[in-house]
# Entry
Amino acid sequence: MTPQLLRDTLGIELWRVPIVIASAIIIYLVLLLLLRLFGARVLSGLTGFDIVVSITLGAVAGRVILGHPPTLTAGIIGLVTLLCCEAIFGLVRSNVRIHRSFNNQPTLVLAHGQPQQDLMRKAHVTTKDIMSSIRREGITNLKDVQCIILEPSGVMSVLGYHSVLDPDVLYAVVGGERVLSNDSVRPD
# Structure
């Protein structure tokens, strides 16, 4: 089979295949690094701005991976490479040290109705984000919130006082001890 016939059949020149694979791996690692630096909240879709950032990140990453001109074969190679990266990192996640270096930890952003400003800054969470999550849960009084945790996925978990908090729920939550130290205290 001639190189021209192979290119016409696959829609991609063979020399571009390793470039697509390398581009996909590099983009995957760069996105992991950026999410580590800026927090998963960027991809949570909490605001219109967050959604625009998510879509733009995907578009830029896709364009870089596929190259010019984009082809179906390059797209398939890029997707397979990204999924292989995800599978490899899935296996590596069992190592706690490596897992923590690539993934954001769940972070306490509100404890006993009080915003945790230092942790909010680190997690890139605003008071508006917190209030939005409380309203979404149908809670009408800040004093009814025992804690809010920003999860690694960017979603905020709102825990009220309606039941006793099992300390295991706060396992590996950055700042979780702030809730437990005042667990029996409910602000009135």
